[in-house]
Amino acid sequence: MCCACCRAFLVVALLLCMPTLAAKPKPAATCTLQVFGQPRKAKNGIASAWLKCTGGLVRVVVDEALLGKFKSNFTGVTWGNQQCKVLAAQYQCVFTVCPGTRVILSNSVVKGLSGKFGSVVCLIGSKVRISNTTVASNAGNGIMVTNSSVSFTGITVITNNRGVGILGEARSIINITGNTLITKHDASGHGGGVSVKANSTLWIGGNASVSNNTALTGDGGGVYVGSYSNVTIAGQASISGNVAQSNGGGLAVNSTSIVSIRDGASISNNKCVGPGDNSNGGGVFVNVNSSVSIGDEVSISGNTCTGDGAGIGVNDNSLIKITGSVQIAHNKGSQVGAGVWLGKNTTSHVAGNVVITNNSAEFSGGGVYVFHFAKATIGDNVSITHNTASSGGGLYAYSDCEVTVAGNVNINR
Predict the structure, then answer these.
(1) Whether 312 contacts 340, CB under 8 Å
(2) What is the average pLDDT across 375-385?
(3) The pTM is what?
C-alpha cells in the first residue's frame, strides 16, 4: 500500500474511533415585543405592533386579523409552518412562539388588546425566558403555555387580563421568580392568577406575588393545580388577597397533584365565598388523592371561608404534612375547622414548632377539625391555642375518626 493511502486509511480509522459529540443546543434569540391596543371604541383592535429579534432562529405565528398588517414590523423572525398555524388557531392565540424555538423575551409590553381570542401570548413546544415584561389589560388569558418550558424573571407584571394570568398545560414547566407580579385577573373556571394541569410543573419563588385575582366560577382564586401536576411555592413568594367562588381562595390542589409550600412563603387574606358546603379552604384546599407538605417558616393567615377550613381544607383521600416553624393564625370560617379542616378519608401529620392560634369557627373546631374516617397525628412541639368555636375551640374530633396526640403538645382554647 502506498504511503499516501496508508495516511488516508489512518485518518479514516481515527475518525471512526473518535467519540461522537452531542450537538450543541441552538442559541436562544433575544426578542423585544411591543403591541398596543386601540381604545375600546375603535374598530381596529391594535394601534401599533413590532417585534425585533437577534441572535438566533425564532419561529412565530400571529393572528392575521389583529396583527397581519403589522407583520412588516416583525424583524429577525421566520414565520411558522402550517402545524404551528393550526395549533395557534386551535388555542385562539394572538402571538405564538412555535415548537422548537428558544427565545428570551425581554423589555416587552403587550397591552390593551380587545377582540375575541383565547390568549394574548402562546408558547407551544418552546423554551422561553420572559424578563422585565408587562402583559396587561387584554381581552383574554395573559400567557398560555403548552408542552413548553418558561421562566419569568426580573420585574415582570401580568395584570388585569380578562382571563387567567398564566395558563399551563400538557407537561409544561413554569418557573415564576424575581419580582414577578400576577394580579387583578377575573377568570371563569379554575384558577384566577395561575392555572396548571395535565402533568405540568410549577415553581413560584423569589419575591413573586400572586395577588387580588378571582376565580369567578371555580376553584383556586390565586393558583389552581390539577391533573397530576407538581408545584413548589418557596422563598418569599406570596399568595394573597385572592377570591374563589368555590374552593381554595388562595391555592386549590386537585386530581392527584403534589404541592410543597416552604422556605418563608406566605398565603394570606384570601377568601372562598360560594355556598358553604361547596366552598372550602380559604387559604389552601387539597382534594382528590392529592398531597401537600408545608414547612420551614411558612405563614397561612387572615384567610376566610363560607365553608370549612378557612386556613387549610383537606378532603377526599388526600394527605397533608405540616412540620417545622409553621404558623396558621387569624383565619375565620363560617362553619368548622377554621385553622385546619381534615375531611373524610384524609391523612395528616402535624409536628415540629407548628403554631395554630387565634382562628375562629362558627360551629366546631376553631383550631383543628377531624371528620369521618380521617387519621390525624399531632406530634412534638405543636401549639393549638387561643382558637374559638361553639364546640371544640382547640380540637374537635368527629365520630369514626382516628386522632393520635403524642409528645410535647399544647392544646387549649
Answers:
(1) yes
(2) 96
(3) 0.93
Quote the longest CA-to-CA distance of the chain.
102
Assess contact for 239 and 222: CB atoms under 8 A. yes
**Quick one: cell of 59?**
419561529
Round to whole Å and give the CA distance between 310 and 302: 9
Q: Which helix (H) or strand (E) holds 230?
A: strand 230-233
Short-list 243, 353, 248, CA closest to 294: 353
Residue 143 Ramachandran class (φ > 0 left, ψ -120 to 50 alpha, else beta): beta
Give the model confidence (pLDDT) of 263-295 as tens digits.
999 999 999 999 878 899 999 999 999 999 999
The residue type at 81? N
Angstrom distances, CA of residue 390 to CA of 90, 311, 362, 367, 394: 53, 18, 6, 12, 11
Residue 101 gets which letter from DSSP? -
Q: How far is CA 366 from CA 1, 260, 278, 384, in A?
A: 94, 25, 19, 9
Distance from C-alpha of 127 to C-alpha of 239, rounded to nearest angstrom:
26
Q: What is the pLDDT of residues 339-376, one digit of tens each?
A: 999 999 999 999 999 999 999 999 999 999 999 999 99
* Residues 12-71 pLDDT 10s: 333 334 344 445 566 789 999 999 998 765 555 799 999 999 998 899 999 999 999 999
Which single residue is written with the C-alpha cell 481515527? Answer: 14
